[in-house]
Every structure is written in C-alpha cells, then in structure tokens.
Design goal:
Jelly Rolls, seven-stranded antiparallel β-sheet, 2 helices, globular
Amino acid sequence: MVSRIEIAPGVYFWREKFNRAAQEKLLQDVLALEKQAPFYRPVMPGNGKPFSVEETNFGALGWVSDKSGYRYQPRHPVTDKPWPAIPPTLTDLWNETADGPEAECCLVNLYRAGARMGLHQDKDEKALGSPVVSVSLGDDAIFRIGGAARRGPTKSLKLATGDVVMFGGPARLAYHGIDRILPGTSTLVPGGGRLNLTLRRVT
C-alpha cells in the first residue's frame, strides 16, 4: 500500500503508486489507444505558437487548444473521430483517489527532451469541485505548484515514473507547471521522454 503524502493543503502525492509492471501495462494501453487518437501538437490561442508538448485525449471529452481558444470537445481535432475510452487502470485510480463523479477526460501530454509547461490553472472545467489526478510515466520531471495567484510562492517536486499527484479543494485552481524534463532518467517510454496522464471531471 503506497502512502499518501500531503504536499500542501489540497495537494497530495503518491511515490511510485504504479510499480514497474503496472507502468509497463499502462504504457501499452496508452500506446494502443494512441493509434486511434494520435498525438498532435496544439497551438496557443491568438498567436498560433506551437506547444512544446504533443497531446491526445481519452474519454468522453478532450481538452484542445487552437487559435480560437481553449475548450473541451468530443472529437479529435485532426481525425475528427471520437476520443477512445479512458483505460480501466486509470478509471480505477480515479475511483480510488477522487471523491465524486466519474472522470470524463484523460489529457495525455508527451514531453520529449526540452519540452516544458509554463505555470497555468486548470480552469476550463465546470466541475471545479472535482480534483485533478495526474500520473507520470517515463523520465523524471520538475513539477512546480503554487496557489491561486500567479505570482505567489511555489513549491517544486521531482516526479518520477509511476508517481501520482492529485490537487483539489483549496488547491483546485493552483498555478502549476513543468519546469523541465530530466532526459535519460527512465527507459520506459520508447524514444525517451515523459508521458503525463491527467484525469479530470469536466461537466
């Protein structure tokens, strides 16, 4: 039984919640579903600058970003096909850790060497009473999380493969991001890099 650690009010952390065998099984699930919903590179609203990460989604709704803005939609923006269902391993994780209705979206971010994610809030969901649950697979990453004010104090945490983070309640609108990836720290992801699987309730 992996113990839960409270990092800050509303922010919880499980070190290696998934062991190596479970990581490999989850990775195979993700790679199989990615054939149905391939990774693509979103762009920033307005200026159209490409993200440094590639993305796809699983579940009834997927989070997308393009020149017109951020939103959730039921179809892949490139293939126009419905997103595949969230793998059972992740729905089980959600049911174990999150108290509330089922997850509707699993946003999958692929970080290769040099990719990062600036500080941001997850606020495009109507269901702000439900937490965000995040799984790391692959290379280590430096995760940063603060409060609801962009310029407030932050804490940094090294996330390794198999780790899980959840934030909700007073931390649901906390600014957070990935400062950098530490290449070569894991052999899990083919070609190197990190997969981040983020479960959310949307409606």
